[in-house]
Design goal:
The chain has four helices and no strands. Helix 1 crosses helix 3 and helix 2 packs across helix 3.
């Protein structure tokens, strides 16, 4: 149960949003997010959040590649 609670907190911290804003983003009731923060999160939601983190990491890597390319092109 602790793992799921940390996942919701992590999602909100990574996105710099509140649980209410997360609920709005997912178009689900805020009470559902609150329940997930204290109980088991459905597997589909866990997968969604994992993909969200992966997407964020890939965007950061892509930006680093673009920055490196700009530096190389400026030489």
């Amino acid at each position: 149960m602790e793992k799921e609670m940390n996942l919701i907190k992590r999602v909100c911290q990574e996105l710099n949003i509140s649980q209410k804003e997360l609920a709005e983003e997912l178009e689900i009731p805020q009470s559902t997010i609150s329940r997930w923060a204290n109980d088991d999160i459905p597997k589909m939601a866990v997968l969604y959040f994992e993909l969200l983190f992966e997407n964020k990491a890939l965007k950061m890597k892509l930006q680093a590649i673009k920055n490196a390319r700009e530096i190389i092109n400026s030489l």
